[in-house]
Each structure stands twice: as structure tokens, then as C-alpha cells.
Amino acid sequence: MKVLAFDLDDTLVRWKPAVAEAAVRAAAAAAGSIDPAVLVRAVRQTWEDLAVPLWTGRMDEEGITRATTSTLVAALGISPDEGAALYAAFVEHLSGLIVPYEDTAVLPALRERYRLGVATNGLGPVQRAKLRHAGLAPLFDFVVVSAEIGVAKPDPAFYEVVQRAADAPAREITVVGDNVTRDLLPARAVGMAAVWICRNNEGLEETSWDGPVVTSLYQLESMLV
Question: Which CATH class is domain 3-13+99-223?
């Protein structure tokens, strides 16, 4: 049976909108005057700067919490205690805002024709919790999380692990993701097929991707054979 391997964030579950909204809610509930734009920018910049150690498992959740709290303290001019409370509130709001896209309703039908998997960068407990909270975990035959294997996308070696987890030849695996550079090109590099999920046609004019594109997971049913 052929395999579909899905990216998680902004492919199966809403991530970027959840981060922005969590910043707004955390800022509104803070004791002082907090600019949510500064808050979300500081958080995103820290996560981006530390993406490699985080995604490859060299930094844990406690480490990223300390680093992000320190960044918030500097960016917002608040005390360490205030920074810790603000980040804790942000994370709490974020966990409740990560929801599946409506078109994930097609996954049970796809599962009748394909083995399904998840191939995601991130911390194991965090990414697996997203799948559980979204109600998607039972739909997948395998889940590969970068921090659990010590290698992250866009390293093609990540997809070699995915291939082993899928227990299928690379040519029988199709990767579906929202990021061309991180999700799709390295999958192609190891012989897999790849489909770009480009919701709301965002970024179509800005990429040289020459492979298949869908704007909804529902389109996969007719595209794949």
C-alpha cells in the first residue's frame, strides 16, 4: 500500500494563526501594558534562532522556555518573573488554539487507500500532544518527530528515517507539506513524490516549485492514484 506522509504545523493543524492569537490573549491578560506585536515577534525570533538545536533534540522544552523568557524580558522591559508569567500564559493560550484544519476530515477516506504518517519538526511531546488534542492521532500509522531522531528537515536524512518508519520504497511515498524548501525539496531528494499544500494560494507567485499544488486536502483524493 502506498504512503502519504504529512507535515503537521500549518498542514494539518493551524499554527501561525494560533501563535498570533495567543500573543494577543496573553498580552491582554498581562498586568502591565504589553504590545502583542512585540511579544509575538520576540517569541518567533527566539524560536527561529534556536530552531536547529530545538528540532534536533539538543534543546528541550525547559531550555526554550528559559531562552524565550529572557528574550521577552529584554524586548518588553519587564522583570524576569513577569517574563516567565507572560510566556507561561502565552503557551497556555497557544495549546488551546491549535486546531485541525476542516479539510482534515478527508483523512479517514484517504486512509482507506493509503497508509498515513506524520513527518514533523519539533519536540516529541509537543508535536504528539498536538495530534492528540486535534483528534488526529488515531488516523496515523507512524509519526516521525525530528527531536526524537536527532535530525530535522530540510536534511534529506530526515526523510530516510521517514522511509524506514513507513516501511515502503521511497517511490511509493508522497509527502504533503506547506513549506517547499523544508518539506518538499528534501523529500524529492531521496526519491519521494511531494505535494505542496498552499492554502489561500499564498506564495504561489514567489516560488519556483514545479510540482503538484493543492489548496485543500480534499483535492488529494482526485489527484493521487
Answer: alpha beta
Domain ranges of the chain: 3-13+99-223, 16-97
Instruction: Report angle CA 199, 201, 206 to the nearest 5 degrees.
Output: 120
CA distance 203 to 77: 35
**What pTM value is reported for the model?**
0.93
pLDDT digits (tens, 9 = 90+) for 137-169: 999 999 999 999 999 999 999 999 999 999 999
Q: Using 50 as the pLDDT threshold, list the residues of the chain that sit under it.
A: none
The sign one gets for the Cα dihedral 115, 161, 185, 193 is negative
Residue percentage of the chain with pLDDT more than 70: 96
Q: Do 122 and 147 meet the contact criterion of CB atoms below 8 Å apart?
A: yes
Sheet holding 173-177, edge to edge: 142-145, 115-120, 3-6, 173-177, 193-197, 213-214
Share of the chain above pLDDT 90, in %: 89
Q: What is the Cα–Cα distance from 117 to 144, expressed in whole angstroms?
A: 8
Instruction: Tell me how far the alpha carbon of residue 84 is from its chain's centroid.
Output: 24
CB 121 within 8 A of CB 146: yes
Integer Cα distance of 99 and 158 in angstroms: 26
Mean pLDDT of the chain: 93
